[in-house]
Predict the structure.
Amino acid sequence: MLTLIGNEFRKLLSRKKTYVVFLGFAAFMSLMVYAKYRENKNIEYYNSPEVRLQQMQESINHFNDRMKEIDKELKKEDISEKVRTELNVEKRYYTEDIERVKNSMKPLEEAIKTGKNRIGELI
């Protein structure tokens, strides 16, 4: 029985096609390992306190820009009372969002100040 299995393996390994398939599989696995490595590096980068703080600051800038647009719209005299009310509500939401984001920035600033890489290390 063992000789039969040994003969089949010798026949299998004597074919060039087998080595091509092994080589293709090894190349595919190498590519997948590299892709996973790059993905982990990107996740680590985007979860760093510095990048998260920068993204939050960009959000605040966007909110402020939108509030300026709302103010311009509110200054127009030809808008209906319903639209004016909706714009005021939207402006209030943006103000609340800015406060929420500023409060979320405090642990990030503390992490940067203390040199911690992750927010979870502060807790």
